[in-house]
Amino acid sequence: MTHVHSHGKSDLEHEHHHGHAHAHVPNSLKALVGVISLTATVFFAELIAGFLSGSLALLADAAHMFSDSAGLIIALLALLIGRKGASKRATYGYRRAEVLAAAFNAATVGLIAIWIGVEAVLRIGHQHEVETGMMLIVAVIGLLVNGISAFVLMRQSHKNMNLRGAYLHVLTDMLGSIAVIIAGLVIRFTGFVIADTVASLLIALFIVPQAWKLFKNAINVLLEAAPAGVHIERIEHAIAEIPGVVGIHDLHIWSVTGEDVLVTCHVVTDVQFTDQCALLDQVTDTLAAQGVGHSTIQLESAKHYDHEVIEH
Q1: DSSP for 79-114?
Q2: pLDDT at 263
Q3: Angle of the 9-23 helix axis to the 276-289 helix axis, nearest 10
């Protein structure tokens, strides 16, 4: 039996990717801090105006802004924790803290969306006067601030799940502000007060699918499932097609952050030991072509296969 682990090219690629992500951390931190300040300001403005104007839509949007402020703070803390390097106890580092933050934020936003929907339904048939002037002024301010925040985070959102979740929250806030403005205009010019309830339901409908998608993706990472878009059968077939490979088993594909792809597997081969380095290079190159950034490969002879405890 020969055990060979690929700690050459794949590791260098992984380290390069890790360093590349850290190079952008200052910009990510600045973006989050700036957006947190803007979001918190709009939350307090909408909360006060919602109570004074009697607008449920404005209060609903304020509730979402509160969850976003808290969520953005959690995202910021997770980003700071994720900057810590790997240690003997945390060999992959602490970047999964950002996935935990994404899962928490998604669950919180989802629950608030359900509350908004329930409150909107309960208000049907019990409508009261809404002060549209204050409602519209605050909603327009919220739209401008959320638009700026969304633009700031949009440039950072492709880097990891945590920042993508933060961007998603702010984008939803912007849509919520649009719904509040439309409701305010309808009430002001038609007197159709139920438009406020309709806007609240629309805000909830905007939030729930996005929150569920983010939560599901975060849970997949935490369960160490194969990342979305990774075709396991294609990877297995590509390795099996390499000359000298006679079998593959214990293939595991997962992600630490939701962006990276890691692979470990046992490759059964009939090539001589002197040729195994070339075979190992072929396997790692094949995996890299499939989007795998880090891999650990164990090469073994066919004789050893019968002594393996195969995991399924």
Answers
A1: HHHHTSPP-SS-TT-STHHHHHHHHHHHHHHHHHHH
A2: 92
A3: 30
